[in-house]
Amino acid sequence: MSHAYGILAEYDTPAAAMAAAQRVRDAGYTRWDVHTPFPVHGMDAAMGMKNSPVGWFTFLGGLSGYTGGMVMIWYMNAYNYEIVVGGKPMFSGFYAFPVCYELTILLGAFGSIIGMLILNRLPRLHHPLLKNMRFATVTHDKFFVVIQCDDHKYNETQTRTLLQTGAKHIEMVEE
Amino acid sequence: MSATSDHTPAYTTTTPAELQRVPLVQNQRSLAWISDKVAGIIEDDAPRWWWYAFIPSFLIATVGFASIGYLITTGVGVWGLNNPVMWGWAIVNFVWWIGIGHAGTLISAILFLLRQKWRTSINRTAEAMTIFAVMCAGIFPAIHVGRVWLVWYPLPIPNANDIWPQFRSPLLWDVFAVSTYFTVSLLFWYMGLIPDLATIRDRLRLQAQHLTGPAAQFINKAKQAVYGFFALGWTGSNRHWSHYEKAYLLLAGLSTPLVLSVHSIVSFDFAVSQVPGWHTTIFPPYFVAGAIFSGFGMVLTLMIPLRSLFKLEEIITERHIELMCKVTLATGSIVGYAYGMEFFIAWYGGNPYELYAFKNRAFGPYWWAYWIMVSCNVISPQFFWFKKIRTNMVAVFVLSIFVNIGMWFERFVIVVTSLHRDFLPSNWGYYSPTLMDVLTYVGTMGFFMTLFLLFIRFLPLIAISEVKGVTPQADPHHELGGAQKEVSH
Questions:
Q1: Which of A81, B156, B256, B375 ranks highest by number of CB atoms within 10 Å?
Q2: ipTM of the complex as predicted
Q3: Which domains are delineated in chain B?
Q4: CB–CB contacts below 8 A, A to B
């Protein structure tokens, strides 16, 4: 016997979903989400979300790319096996810079995308919502608000009423 | 799908008529229409013209790879290289292909940072073009080394004598620049694809309900598994979108200095040497502008047939083509200015070798290449000053072909004319390509078209979620997005 995952409410317009999100936010729910076919401008504020910390992953990636590149070039050309080329110095930050610049960008890019995946807990190929057929239009033209049953404020009738305004359809999603 | 072309606008704005912009998606198409239209392209059977394009492209690619096989088994002597021109078509083609890629990154990254919303209709295809162009470019340096099995020497791995690569060489900088460029472009492109792959996955799930017969169901399941795997379980969650958009912005911010650096570093391959005609400080900005110019030429060459063959005129509108023409005009004019400035500096710099190299470029044995370059790159973009020409698709297509030709000749002129008459007149020569040079180059075009045609068959060629996001229906503060009608003041 499967148990309930949460309540799913379907809306036709981004404005209706945003109004519902504001009500859910003001009611103090914590385990809930809005699902939309594209990022809706202003939805983060409507959900009471903070700025995303992905930038820290990018920064760490870029920093390790730059320092790693400098250390690598110094080690290879000035420490481990020195070869004189055209009387140039064995190590100089100038000639090492183009490569380190590229490595900063390379590892910064990996940092951004890996940071995004870690923060989003992706990939996650099995999800209760992905089994729901109605939810399949989330990537098409419908907007959904989902409140999970394990939210401490969750109460089936009250939560349903909260989502009612503007909703086209409300149903329970099973785990 | 209630919105049709005869639909009267349901709202009025207070913006004066002359300041109103042409909408990015015409006829107020609904959100559903956008995904039906774009996903429909890969869900329908391949149109006949697709096969007519794909089969020759594939055959040409095969000939190209066969000629590379002949080169590897025989040696670089099968090419027209000889003293003093030791860099011939391989380097010309490498720089040309890499340059083409630059428009894709400009559209995906720089126009994103500049909040140019029109980029959403073209960025997916342009980024795909970038990736395939860089793949074609990467072939040439790898095969021009002669002993292809030693091509790993520039990687930071010690060779049999424990010697490391030597990072004082701009050729090594180039290895890092180009491989970073390819990797980051691929990451950026794939990240943009995630929500659209989820769209395809969800559509397949909905279609599965109406399928009969085990074969159709099996194919549907297999497609669901593949698209679903690469969609990473995307659910359109706003908590996900928040991190996603931040990461996308950061990738755009990283790709912008990247794209400017890649062709700068390619130009260092020339500028850091002592050869007259190469040793000039103007090269980095001049190469970057030329790269973007040639890339937009290629984007126009690809987009104009694509939008009419797939009937995408409402998403890739005349306005999009016009804006791309304007970028081509701007970068083309920078290139024309650079040609003039090179001559001025050659004269003003007072270096007789430098001055000779430039006189020889325009009036020496390769005068024909120089003047093909000037007519294609300096004269042809100037037609884009006229709106009549910018909105005439046939004229834009023809001019974009001239841009492609002109930019190939620019690289030919830079590489070959600077080398063929060096410091010792007894060393002078005249370089001509061989059949193998031509087959390898044409082969990479076949390879590019093969990859591109496969891309438009199997992946959404327009960023569905991004195009939806720039429509008024997507704006929760717009009446079409469901906002309550405000009382007008």
A1: B256
A2: 0.93
A3: 17-154+170-479 (1.20.1630.10)
A4: 229
